[in-house]
Amino acid sequence: MKTDKTFTLRNDETGEEFKLPVLDGIEGPSVIDVRKLYGETGYFTFDPSYTSTASCKSRLTFIDGDEGVLMHRGYTIEELTENSTFLEVAYLLLEGDLPNKKQYDEFEHHITYHTLVHEQLHKFFQGFRRDAHPMAVMCGVVAALSSFYHDSLDIWDPKQREISAHRLIAKIPTLAAMAHKYALGQPFVYPRNDLNYAENFLHMCFAVPAEPYHVSPVLARAMDKILILHADHEQNASTSTVRLAGSSQANPFACISSGITSLWGPAHGGANQAVLAMLREIGSVDRIPEFIEKAKDKDDPFRLMGFGHRVYKNYDPRAGVLKASCDEVLDELGVENEPLLAIARELEKAALADDYFVERKLFPNVDFYSGIILKAMGFPEEMFTVLFAVGRTVGWVAQWKEMIEEPTLRIGRPRQLYTGPAKRDYVPIDKR
Ligand code: ACO
Q1: Which of 6, 109, 197, 210 has the largest CB neighbor count within 10 A?
Q2: Is the pTM of this model over 0.85?
Q3: 358 lines ligand 1 (CB under 6 A)
């Protein structure tokens, strides 16, 4: 929102001053509007990892990293995980408000009746090696959706945008479960319309045709919570990737696939897989001090995975919810002593008592405990990031929709500070 406040930029060489408008959001820091800076001054701003740059306006999600607060459309993540279902949160992100009963039933119906994927899509899976990382499979098959649903690719038609959104949210668990089954060499399991979103996902991942599969309500609720916790997180790397891809007017299936590729990296969604690898490498509680020292050593590339966050300089509220959920899941599964959980708890304690981590405000993030829960549920580690993608798809879709519906949409095009050679004369090959 425009304010009367301004920010004055002074060129110390010429003494010239430029007044820049200041915009206020509903919450969070104000921003200096630099959109006209280049036109008026001939200067760009330089902010390579966007630590001081708001790339867009958004009404979806607010994070207060210093206080450890995460809210979707004004509701805290703690309230949503406690009281809502994932589909309710999905509706909230897409439509702006929590649904009433009728709206919820209609939305659930639309999602449920879009869960099947085209039979021909099954053939795509055969092209991947059985040992392919399921994120590689997901990048491919999600992008391939754009070749199946030509009737919903017109991004300027609100009805087609809505159908694409429903298709993506409905089909992503089906594709994720298929990626899991393909790696195991088991037959794909078709969705069941009598189950809710999380139950159906567990069913597609763990049922086999040879025997009935009972979905545990405790595990289904835990899965639902995991999906809620991953649903959106404002302008992180994968969401920014989706927005940038979408700003060129690419179709939503292609955009979400680009989000999946960005999520895959160990500094982002791949961290939950890396956490378990790290806990296993630590191996026992008595080796924790050794690994804390390694994490602090600047000559050692080792970092505590699942620790630290670009925005949270306090406990990630999602990690708090998951830490509590860990016990419920392990209880339900009768896992009494999970050695990796014992290491995780002690590692957290040791890091939070160490000056290095305290001074840098490094706290556990969402990935620190999620891997332990997912492992206990029976998911292989390669699937952890895929589960993140299943939850995050609604956030990507909602952010993409919000951007497309913005009347001032323009293609995203950052500039650069060129540091290569200055203009020089071309030297023919025989003279080099
Ligand atoms: N272990 C040890 N030291 C760390 C860690 C860590 N996990 N994270 C940050 N630091 C240190 C850095 O070395 C740096 O120290 P310095 O100031 O002495 O140079 C300082 O803390 C600040 O770290 P940056 O790397 O500048 O922070 P940035 O915001 O760029 O990175 C990130 C954030 C990528 C999440 C980082 O903390 C990290 O690599 N964590 C481990 C990977 C991880 O858990 N990723 C998941 C993120 S959450 C998500 O995507 C869902």
Answers
A1: 197
A2: yes
A3: no
